[in-house]
Known about the structure:
Strand content: 5-15%
CATH class of the largest domain: Alpha Beta
Number of domains: 2
Structural class: alpha/beta
Largest sheet: 5 strands, parallel
Organism: Paenibacillus catalpae
Protein name: Helix-turn-helix domain-containing protein
Domain Response regulatory: 3-120
Order of helices and strands: EHEHEHEHEHHHHHHHH
Shape: globular
GO molecular function, one term: DNA-binding transcription factor activity
Domain HTH araC/xylS-type: 152-250
CATH architecture of the largest domain: 3-Layer(aba) Sandwich
Amino acid sequence: MWRTLIVEDEQHARASLRKLFAKANLPFEIIGEAINGEEGLGMIRELQPDVVISDIFMPVMDGVRLLQLTREEGLECRFVMLTAVSEFEYARQAIEYGASGYLMKLSLDLTGLKQAMEKVAAELARMEKLRKADKWFPEKSAQEPTDHPEMNRIIAYIEEHFAEDITLKSLADFIRMDASYVSDLFKKKTGTTLTHYIQNRRIQAAKMLLAETERTVSDIGRNVGFENDNYFIKIFKRWCGVTPNEYRKEQKNVL
């Protein structure tokens, strides 16, 4: 169950959310409620939730500011924003700061909640795979934050979405910069190209799945972001010196 915190100043809205979650049969457990962003930030620090469902307009501290401060402190919880139609521009800003999505307060129903939270559950599952990969393969050098905030945003995005279709253009659009400039700057700040960084992240995840599961090579390749089996095997061998099947046999011999 994913630990969930509700940050909402209206009591009836909090109660409605609890009822919807109870009916939705989703893998989320509500562990607390806060009535504004300031209280919510304290509870995030204390409870370490996996996901925060936060209203945008609240007294003391609004939801967008809460999201900003949470990210500045390096806390990884996912955010889903609650918004009214007139607040849509603020919801868009929240998406730019890394929110997983938003829910329309005035029309929220069981179907809408399920659609939004299933997306969040998938993101959390990817993050869990990433943490397992880091634990299994300590030889992988951890990427230290750069001195450039937009490059750090790209790195964080790749860490969460490496299994998806990621292109230079999509990353450039994400931070609203010219693609050629992003490519040059990323290499300057990290010492590697975007392509190599993404490939390495996918290979590390693939190594964990090969060692810990019995899933087929084809299934693993698709799940870490490679478009077809041959390309996955080719890139895996380039990085590891052996094919995925050979790597799996080596790991079984070690264990």
